[in-house]
Design brief:
alpha+beta, TATA-Binding Protein, 3 helices, 39% strand, globular, PHA_gran_rgn, Polyhydroxyalkanoic acid synthase
């Protein structure tokens, strides 16, 4: 699943905001019972692993010049909640950039 979030920030500012607010990502997950681990393999990519409700989901965020791309490996068993997850990413992703 891919979700694009437009922005008009300098890439360095996007990196700074993601790095300083990534600990808040667990609070943004529906249900509020999530654990999120992140790492930065490159300066424009943040990997993440989300554990919630007995499931684990991996994904990453790519920082592009005018948008963030959330790319989530959603298991087939969770495909029915894809619209809800995409909506949450869209809404909460904007908050990470503020």
């Amino acid at each position: 699943m891919r979700v694009a979030i437009p922005h008009n920030l300098d890439p360095d500012e996007v990196r700074h905001r993601l790095k300083t607010k990534s600990h808040k990502m667990a609070d943004m997950m529906p249900g509020g019972q999530a654990q999120v681990d992140t790492d930065w393999p490159t300066e424009d990519r943040m990997n993440m692993r989300v554990r919630a409700m007995g499931q684990q989901v991996a994904g990453h965020i790519e920082i592009e010049q005018e948008q963030l791309i959330f790319d989530i490996d959603l298991p087939a068993a969770l495909s029915f909640v894809e619209p809800m997850i995409a909506g949450a990413i869209q809404k909460q992703g904007q908050k990470l950039l503020r």
